[in-house]
Amino acid sequence: MKFRTLMWIVTAAIAVVAMAAGVAVFVNRYLNTKKDLDYIECDCECDPDELLDVAE
């Protein structure tokens, strides 16, 4: 295989990866809905003895 052919293959692979990254950024920035999720906060504390019993 010639060096020039190898370089074209490497360039094409890098181009595909760059395009995929660009699409991912576009989707994340413009199409991703950024809604406030109303989580219910809980001041519950875990019992360490229960955690040890489950692990055994």
Can you offer a commentary on this structure?
- By secondary structure, the protein is mainly alpha-helical.
- About 65% of the residues lie in helices and about 0% in strands.
- The chain has helices at about 5-30, 50-55.
- The longest helix is centred in the first third of the chain and has 29 residues, at about 5-30.
- It is elongated.
- The model has no long low-confidence stretch (mean pLDDT about 80).
Task: Specify Rg, calculated over alpha carbons.
Answer: 25 Å
Structural class: mainly alpha
Helix content: 55-70%
Stretches with pLDDT under 50, minimum 5 residues: none
Report the average pLDDT across residues.
80
What is the count of β-strands?
0
Cα shape: elongated
Strand content: under 5%
Largest sheet: none
Question: How far do the termini sit from each other?
Answer: 59 Å
Order of helices and strands: HH
User: Total number of helical segments?
Assistant: 2
Task: Give the topology.
Blueprint: H1 3-31, H2 48-55
